[in-house]
Amino acid sequence: MVAALALLGCSPGGGDTTGTAGTTGSGGTTGTAGTTGSGGTANPAGNAGTTGSGGTGDPAGAAGTTGAAGATGAGGTGDPTGTAGSTGVGGTAGAAGAGGSAGTGGATGGRGGTAGSAAGAGGRGGTGGSAAGSGGRGGTAGSAAGAGGRGGAAGSTAGTSGGGTTGTGGATARFSFFVTSIGALRTLSGSQNGFGGDLRYGETGDGAGLRGADKICAAIAEMSMPGSGAKGWHAFLSAPATATTPVVNAIERIGSGPWYDRMGRLFSANLTNLMATRPTDADAAIKNDFPNENGIPNHTDGALGCTGNSCPDNHDTLTGSGSDGKLYASGGSGNPTCSGWTTAVGSAGRPRVGHSWPRGSTGSAAHWMSSLDEAGCAPGVNLVETGGPNPNDPTVGSGGGYGGFYCFAEVP
Predict the structure, then answer these.
(1) Mutual orientation of helices 182-189 and 208-224 as an angle, nearest 10°?
(2) Most buried of the four, 47, 188, 191, 266, by CB within 10 Å?
(3) What is the pLDDT of residues 174-194, one digit of tens each?
(4) If we measure between CA atoms, which residue out of 224, 399, 379 comes closest to residue 312?
(5) 179 DSSP assignment
(6) Residue 291's beta-bridge partner residues?
(7) Taking 60 as the threshold, does the pLDDT of residue 22 lie above it?
């Protein structure tokens, strides 16, 4: 626009009047729209190709021939059944364990009184001591190794009740002396009259009487305390010489001591103390009333036939020995051992006996090894006081007994 003005001779900035605006030219005509071209012709689809012929396969091979089945192998031969082993031999019974120590002995309670604190035997209605006491009728035995009285309770250690409760434990490992009870002899002999003077107990030949008596001791000990039968028991019996054996003296069969009863009470410490009318060092509870295999003094409440301490006359005990413990060599029929303890014929001899409890206070009547000659060798039991052996009753128990004998173990 400036250029146009210049061409017209007008200069801006001069005082000239502004020219009239030119007329706007008319708009151009819109061209005609072009014609749409027709679409191209599609190419026809090509023909499908020809499928080629299949190739020729190799003809199938002929089927092979199936092989014959293999032969079944022969069964293996089994090992023949082995021969069954023979039955094994059972082992021997083990020895009983050692028990506790028995209580020390004490005083014996009087009838109706109270026993001492140690080893006392309770009186009728009394209470036994606290150690090794035997309870009186209705009383309670001591707390250690006591034997309960009739109806009483035995002590807590190895007590054997007399109608009461049996205690447990005790110093039974030292068990090494007893008098054979009438009950045990009846059981082993199979007779109410016992063995009499024949103690062979199945043994034969020279010395059979002593060997059989030893077996009886061992069997009774085992009955009382299982395991104790193996301690090496010997009957306190003497025997004469035979064609093949020398004289046997009872005192030489029992070892050297000490010996204790079933409750652990001392019977004697050695041969010197034993060789007296009564063992000088025996426990007071058993010194004048030797105990049986159950620890019950053989002439007190609890022993067979005793009621309220009214007891039978059962003191005669076979030994065949003099007061020195050796074969008795005088008096009687000249056969004080029933032919070495092999005969039960009443007239065969008059066996020498000792007293398990004193029939008198002094002399032979009190001697435990040698007191008198019995009436005969036949089996027999007499528990009634008759005043001595009866010639019309030629049995081992005629004078008050049943053919009992003493048993010692060589080692406690």
Answers:
(1) 120
(2) 266
(3) 999 999 999 999 999 999 999
(4) 399
(5) E
(6) 297
(7) no
Residue 401 has pLDDT above 60, yes or no: yes
Contact of 213 with 199, CB cutoff 8 Å: yes
Q: State pLDDT tens for residues 245-276.
A: 999 999 999 999 999 999 999 999 999 999 99
Provide the 3-class DSSP secondary structure of residue 178.
strand
- CA torsion, points 350, 352, 355, 360, in degrees to nearest 10? 80
Q: How many Å apart are CA 235 and CA 188, to the nearest integer?
A: 15
Q: List Cα–Cα distances, 116 to 121, 123, 135, 138, 140, in angstroms.
A: 8, 11, 11, 17, 13
Cα–Cα distance between 154 and 137 in angstroms, integer? 12
Q: Is the peptide bond before 240 cis (omega within 30 degrees of 0)?
A: no
Domain ranges of the chain: 103-170, 174-412
The string of pLDDT tens digits covering residues 34-86 is 343 343 343 333 343 343 343 343 333 333 343 343 343 343 343 333 343 34
Classified by CATH at the fold level, domain 174-412 comes out as Mannose-Binding Protein A; Chain A (3.10.100)
Q: By C-alpha distance, which of 224, 256, 381, 261 is closest to 314?
A: 381
Q: Which amino acid is at 250?
A: A
Cα–Cα distance, 400 to 356 (Å, whole number): 11
Beta strand spans in 265-307 (E): 266-268
Indicate the length of the chain as a whole number. Answer: 412
pLDDT at residue 153 above 50? no
Q: Which of 159 and 207 is assigned the larger pLDDT? A: 207
Are the C-beta atoms of 228 and 221 separated by less than 8 Å? yes
Contact 128, 293 (CB under 8 A): no
User: How many C-beta atoms lie closer than 10 Å to residue 230's C-beta?
Assistant: 15
From 179, 243, 232, select the one nearest 206 (Cα to Cα).
243
**Residue among 263, 262, 281, 283 at smallest CA distance from 272:** 281
Please tell me what DSSP assigns to residue 274.
Answer: H
| CA dihedral angle for residue 339, residue 340, residue 343, residue 345, rounded to 10 degrees | 40
The answer to whether residues 298 and 286 touch, using CB atoms and an 8 Å cutoff, is no
Helix/strand/coil for 211:
helix
